[in-house]
Amino acid sequence: MDQVKWNVGVIGAGVMGERMMNAIRTHEKFRVAAVSDVSAERAQEAAQKSGDVPWYTNYKELLKKVELDVIYLAVPPKFHHAIALDVLAHKKHLLCEKPLANSLTEAQEMLEAANDAGVVHAMNFPLYYQGVFPELSRRLEEIGDVRRIDILTHFHQWPRPWQQTPWLAGREQGGFIREVLPHFTHLTYELFGDLHVVRSEVDYPADHDLCETGVSAFLRLTDGTPVTINGLAGIAHEEHLDYRVYGSKGTLSVVNWSNLFVGGHGEALVPAEVPQQDRLSLLLDELSIAMNGGDARLVTFETGVKVQQVLEALLGHEKVHYIK
Predict the structure, then answer these.
(1) Are both 156 and 258 inside the same structural domain?
(2) How many angstroms separate the CA atoms of 100 and 176, rounded?
(3) Strand, coil or helix: what is 17?
(4) What CATH number corresponds to the domain at position 66?
(5) Does residue 1 form part of some domain?
(6) How is residue 79 annotated by DSSP?
(7) How many domains does the chain have?
(8) Is residue 200 part of a domain?
(9) DSSP for 187-233?
(10) Structural domain of residue 272, as residue ranges?
(11) Contact 308, 107 (CB under 8 A)
């Protein structure tokens, strides 16, 4: 028999944590049972919104003092590894934000620990649960042989106005390569399989503490299909994201996360209708299925490691340009 509600411990009550907690608070299978954040103000506010549940500024206290079924981890990437290993040592199911870790070694160790713990492990990749994903998948059959995939990520400001957090601007764990490109790397993996980086050139400002301002990369799918990445920040242009698949009979383009455009042979791209889905609710549905022992549609740490491999290769600095 299914449990009435799973108890969720939330570690990290920032922007992403709050979004997930809003979804958990209205979900029939989960409840926020405890919150931890290094900011006492944020932790207390989130706990009050969740029904005056216990709150902590040290996640280890949360793990020790509250009966929990699953942890949602929404802290900056460089803290994922240490916290995740503690969570997994407590044999708790784990839902983690992307990227999985701050290095490939850390990501692999997290996967190994999750497998050893025998728990459900998953990641939050919103595109996978949006209506655009099944519609894009369905329409791939209509465009013939895939000739190339182009990924464009342009930002007039980084971090974006709603993301004014110092770590996102830093080279150690921030930048749009780590923050945005995982979404499109994962999308490519789910649609087409493994991909590897052939070459990558990353532009950095002269200040060695600041993250990248540009990336130009060439990748290939296992079958040899080329994939390009064109990323820029700090340009006189509104934010624009475009994931474009060119085929021999048609083209598909996902613009700014949720807008799908389609075009046939010799045709201009036109908007396509995409069904609306509550992506976080769907993710939680699948997580509950997995926690009940069922087959679920989750992005596991195995896939997280594959995404991490691509990120590390993109950041491999084969050619690094410092802009004065």
Answers:
(1) yes
(2) 15
(3) helix
(4) 3.40.50.720
(5) no
(6) G
(7) 2
(8) yes
(9) HHHHHH--EEEEEEEEEEESSTTB--SEEEEEEEETT--EEEEEEEE
(10) 127-277+309-323
(11) yes
